[in-house]
Amino acid sequence: MTSSASAVPAPSSREAGRGGRPRAAKLVRMTPLTPAIALMLVFLAGPIIYCLYAAFTNMALTGTGANEVKFVGLENFRKAFGSGAFTNAIWLTLVFTLISAIIGQNTLGLGLALLMRRSTKIVRNFVGTAVIGAWVLPEVVAAYLLSAFFNEEGTLNVMLHKVGLPGQDWLYAAPIIAVSLANIWRGTAFSMLVYSAALSEVPKEIEESAEMDGAAGIRRLLFVTLPMISRAVMTNLMLITLQTLSVFGLIYAMTRGGPGTKSQTLPLYMYEQAFSFSQIGYGTAIALVMLAIGAVFSLIYLRGLNSEAA
Amino acid sequence: MIARDRISKLTANLVLLAIGILFVLPLLWVLFASINRTAGLRVEFPTEPTLGNFKAVLNTDTTYRPVFNGIVLCGGSALLTMVCAVLAAYPLSRFKSKFNRPFLLTVLFCTGLPITAVMVPVYGLFVQLNLVDTIGGTIMFMATSSLPFAIWLTKTFMDGVPISLEEAAWVDGAGNMQALRRIVLPLMWPGIAVVLIFTFIGMWGNFFVPFMLLLSPERLPASVSIFTFFGQYGEPNYGQLAAYSLIYTFPVLMLYLLLSRKLGGAFALGGAIKG
């Protein structure tokens, strides 16, 4: 199940045994799909379609929109893109995704996977266990552990004091950095595993012969190793970006989006608008923006997989 | 050459160790604080280790009921996911159809959609269908949200089961579902276990979905109750928080160990995802 696990359906051949069946029989064979399709229609497609409708209304839990739902056209989107809080949330989401996923988890994961190939077994096992341990922890537990770590009286400051640096309450001073680091801590294992699996399939001879030809260190990494695992890099980047875009619990439990709105990424902003302020229509408009971002990434990801398979 | 190899190995080890220690520090905190009566926020080994914190949280309201709720909720959802995924994967893996490719691509596309974004309309849907604050409704939604990934993974595992055995069974007059139950499932149980455990672990840690869809305190699973007990009012008791975190984490830790020891777990999964 390793490398054959291509995303695109391999044509599972088996018409032979019972070929030439009429249409009805073909439909009957497909019936086991019904429960899955029914669930996904009701609980996944349904909400998305609902999103498409509600985002263009003034639907609310209280106030005017509660009594009489009116179609308001693009008003919600106009309001969003004109509001400082929304652009702030978009901005923070970008920073969060860039720092914690694209730079942090991805690079650290690749670095760990590369270093692990040259390390001693005991070190490898220790680090692997620690990194995966952080990954297995439930979201809220991870949030508490890292809140403690970044707190004014927390371990990070104790270490900083030891080397003579001033400490501060990181969750107040630099909340978006703190939650980004927290997400790196929590999510790096995924990239590490993906890259370890990919690197294990790079033939040692190729790297060795590259070294013979004088390509060492960074150059060998850039021109020999990375091109060989480029598919894994693409897949990994897409998947962690998508995961990071929708992180809610970690940030909510660590900072509630605060202080003020300094760590209020899109999911937290959407939650606040829809539930704390009861603006369902406006909240769904934001949800639609998030879905659109996710859909674009998802499509790029599919294309990447598809073109590779072709 | 050999000397250089040794130096590069040493550097690799040292860098890895440093990163490993950074990853371990927050974990050490929870271990030490849980046995410390006067736990603070920094990592320190308690002067008088005690199990008092565990005793304090081991009661119905704080631990037993939320953990039980979590098992019902996540176990139910994971089982529902698994049943639907196996049923769906069978025709996708075994029969050629024009419908397969678009369906699998849609499934794969859905794995990328941010579930967080759907939560506002899902809440709206739940209000319409009168499902808010029901375990059943929450189970169905949680199962759906992990279904795309589960279908895809299950199909991948099922593709690995050779078809010849089933063909023999068909000749003997067995139906598709019989062949699935008697032949395919027994041969792919490690795959089933991986998908099931992985789905369960993901759900056990999920905070947002039950946080939005369940309201009554007596229905909340551990992932939400840990937040409502310790997160909302002022300075929490850190020792008890740490002890509770450990209790809450224990089941998924055990499942994960099972996964990685017996089945090559995450490494196999990493291989599957690598694409």
Task: Give a verbal description of the structure.
The complex is a heterodimer of chains A (310) and B (275). Chain A is mainly α and 310 residues long. Chain A has helices at residues 23-30, 34-54, 64-67, 75-82, 84-118, 121-136, 139-150, 155-162, 170-173, 175-199, 204-212, 217-228, 230-245, 249-255, 266-276, 280-309. In chain A, helix 2 packs across helix 16, helix 5 (84-118) runs parallel beside helix 10 and helix 5 (84-118) packs antiparallel against helix 13 (230-245). Chain B is mainly α and 275 residues long. Chain B has 2 domains: 1-49, no CATH class; 55-267, MetI-like (MetI-like fold, Orthogonal Bundle). Chain B has 13 helices and no strands. Chain B has helices spanning 2-34, 52-57, 60-94, 100-112, 115-128, 135-159, 164-171, 176-187, 189-205, 208-213, 222-230, 238-263, 265-273. In chain B, helix 11 (222-230) packs antiparallel against helix 12. The longest helix of chain B is centred in the first third of the chain and has 35 residues, at 60-94. Chain B starts with a helix and ends with a helix. The model of chain B has no long low-confidence stretch (mean pLDDT 85). At the A-B interface, helix 1, helix 2, helix 5, helix 6 and helix 7 of A face helix 1, helix 3, helix 4, helix 5 and helix 6 of B.
